[in-house]
Design goal:
Length: 336
Amino acid sequence: MEFRKLGRSGLKISEITYGNWLTHGSQVENDVATQCVRAALDAGISTFDTADVYANGAAEAVLGEALKGERRESLEVFTKVYWPVGPRGKNDVGLSRKHILEGIDNSLERLGMDYVDLYQAHRYDHETPLEETISAFADVVAAGKALYIGVSEWTADQIRAGQALAQQAGFRLISNQPQYSALYRVIEGQVVPTSRELGLSQIVFSPVAQGVLTGKYLPGQQPPEGSRATDTKGGAQMISRWMRDDVLAAVQELKPVAADLGLSMAALAVAWVLQNDNVAAAIIGASRPEQVAENVKASGLRLPAEVMTKIDELLGDVVATDPALTAANAPKVRPA
């Protein structure tokens, strides 16, 4: 396992990070989830990403239990705040001062920890003044409940405004967590250049495009039983944008590329995002421990320039690049 610095900070994290979105507390039984976390630790992963909204808090609790007994100083644990949680009351959502300060306490209780290493704004809150949000995050840091602050799926302009206020408040934003993969490159035009300038790294989710880049979904055929594309708890909805025959056919063309490198399709996809020097980590999920071991093979790989060019050629115009898609991922009003 290799490690990278997170933004313009002194924090180092494992470049393969284990995340439990759509798995712990929902798709995966708790004992299997614990096995996956143990597999991650055995593979050298020290960084774990979760959020209060995942399975309405259950994912944080499962992760905390799975990490119990580990040396806390040897781990980097991340969580997030924004989406509706708990009974989903009018203030159980967003980035108001009330929700942030209550949210961090609830997350720490579920995790069974005194602090998280990184606390992230899970989306931009258009209903709360940015000054209020940043002030609340400053108080979370001052209280020692989070060591660093990051954001997720913020636009370049939102990152710039947030960083200016954060510095006035005595801290820095050090990370952004966007969707990023060989199929979904919308951050490259604006978010990445702005992040480089302002000292933020990307912690990217869905590097395998919700499983599409594994090549297991074939054009013109029904998805395999038990796969994410058949999951009615949310997985099928998340993956639907890629379940087009033109996308699936293009992905099949990557199989010889992966084979020539001695990699699985999943490892190739994870290695691809790690070629971007503004990416500090790729978040992987798993429903089986062996998936962790396979994805970790991407750590430390440097893909030749001709391979990167070949991937671009094979995927062609099925790649999403429109920067406007980042703003589209944040609701204009808080979800109920």
